[in-house]
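Quality-control log, excerpt.
Job 1 of 2 completed; input and output follow.
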Amino acid sequence: MRLGEIMSRAQHELVTTAAAFADGGEWRREGATSAAHWIAEHLDVAVATAREWIRVGRALRSFPIFDEAFASRRLSYAKVRILT
């Protein structure tokens, strides 16, 4: 498997998991003010980055064609961010 394929699959998994995590509310039980804040703290990224992951993951639910294209590496994360 090529590096690009691994990266694309990982990015797709990241944004879809971040959206599911945000919607699940587990972060509330740990006292976080938002899912983005919980993700930022635990993954050592900026809150804005975590918010973007959640936003893109949620948006992909409304755009199954983009979701499938991203999952299969026909669209990059950079392009998906713009399209959603």
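Job 2 of 2 completed; input and output follow.
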Amino acid sequence: EVLETGIKVVDFFMPLRKGGKVGIFGGSGVGKTVLILELIHNAELLKNTATIFCGIGERIREGHELYESLITKKLLSKVSLVFGEINEKAAARFRVAYAATTLAEYYRDEESKDVIFFVDNIYRFIQAGNEVSTLLGRIPSEDWYQPTLSSDIGMFEERLLSTKNAAVTSIQAIYVPADDMTDSGIQTAFSYFDSIIVLSRTVAGEGKYPAIDILASSSSVIDPDILGKQHYELYVETEKILKRYSYLNRIVSIVGEYELSKEDQVVYHRARKLLNYMTQSFFVTSDQTGRVGKFVPRAKTIADVADIISGKLDSVPEEALLYIGELGELHGRPKLA
């Protein structure tokens, strides 16, 4: 079963599987926490679902802002918050992850509720484990992580499993130090995720949010038997278009757009419109951006993408698709908050 998040780029390119694990990878300041918070907001639309947020080693300010936001939106009674913030001792930051998994197991086993489990941030969990390991006098690995790195992550991840009575869906933010995806801590966590969402500093620099690198992201749910024939075929087609666009964009940056063939110009502009369409205003940032948040059903996203790549919007300027919800809004741009 595919979970509908209401976030266009996630629902179309890297759909979430109920009972699966999702990793949100990115460096500092590219929007990991904002994406997590928007998913928390939209998760409350699901019925009979327990929502847990585990904050590991993050700033106290961020935890307080989440708390205040949940009060304002009258969601606090529906979300369990577990924190081991940056000011806490290493042992507290390390163990808070296991405390939160115990809570998830309670909802799953005792109340037979589906659980959506949010974590921010797994890398801070790894860091805390490293600090504890150093205090215990253990010899680090050659890249200076704790020798128990694999077992630390495995013990945490393998408790977040679904049963026949209830599903545990885990959405985890992972800080990428120095934007280095080959870091050992990052690579150790990779294998546990069904869907991987990679946030890009380049996309963020273009002012497009959520700043997701679509081609670097992936999902094990990309299967016609799960997504349906239409979504799967559109995914394959759009992936080809975006890969071609990535190549054409390098050419355009050197010699200009008009050196492309007519066919390539069509692909180039449709890809840019598709990328602009995938930008979205979030509910949790509406106060800062002045744009009302949008929840777009997955079926509507699929239909809109089909219209874009079939050429129905070839006469529409690229800029018109930035931060809209559905294509139906093109005749009346969304109102400011």
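Post-run check on job 2. The mean pLDDT is 91.
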